[in-house]
Amino acid sequence: MHATGTDNAPRPVQLWWASLPDVRPGLVELLDPVELGRYEATADPANKLRFLAGCAISRLVLGELIGLPPADVPLRRVCPRCAGPHGKVTLDVPAGSAHADVRFSVSHSGDVIGVAVCRGAEVGLDVEDGAGTDVARVAPRVLGDTELAALRARPPAERHAAFLRYWTRKESVLKAIGVGLRVPLRRLRVSDPKLPPAVLSWPAQIDACHEVRMADTVVGTTHPASVTVTGTTEVTLLRHDTSAILRAWR
Fold it and tell me: What is the spatial distance between Cα 193 and Cα 125, in angstroms, rounded to a whole number?
């Protein structure tokens, strides 16, 4: 269940946002060989730019934080199932170093790309564009029976926004605890969008319940986003626009 106790001070989570028009070809210089291979293998032009932007923002932000040139930031991706280089990205620094507690999460949807960074807790970020989403078709794959009934009870004009809020909350939780989409979203139950974000019940596929804290936000006026961190410390979101940084690179 969602924990009720809190630590004394809120945990700051830095949110860095950019949009696809800010992405420049020169940002490819920041990619390591694994990232470059994935970038070149991505056929869809928009997905290619989203991946490039996520890598670039991560490297620019983390480089500033740990005092390294962006291209030298040590990032690591390891799939927990096959050990391939495509798992959740982490900052690969030695245990006990000054930056060993830095965690971050990348999300992109539509023309928006975001990176969430915090210390001392695992973090998950999800943003959804939602444009053109067929809620009637997609909702049964994302929402449990109780959530789906609550969604259908809303006025039709409210259903799209409510569904996207459910969706961002769920994906941010699964990212934070490191299981990604290996667990069906509909098995994770979260609070109604009108209520403060919280996990109400965990899927049976997850070995143990987790203590998490969540926060909702909106990018611009159309992109709902949610952040989840592990632990019992409440979350404070600090937003930054990285558009100028990306445009200025090279």
Answer: 17
Instruction: Output the furthest CA–CA distance in the chain (Å, rounded).
Output: 52
Of the candidates 51, 24, 21, 50, the residue with the CA atom closest to the CA atom of residue 36? 51
CB-neighbour burial class of residue 186 (10 A; exposed 0-12, middle 13-18, buried 19+): middle
CA 232-234-239 angle, to 5 degrees, is: 135
Q: What angle do CA 192, 196, 199 make, to 5 degrees?
A: 65
pLDDT in tens, 124-182: 999 999 888 999 999 999 999 999 999 999 999 999 999 999 999 999 999 999 887 77
Give the count of alpha carbons within 13 A of 76, CB side only. 10
| Closest to 91 in 3D by CA, of 67, 126, 111, 112 | 67
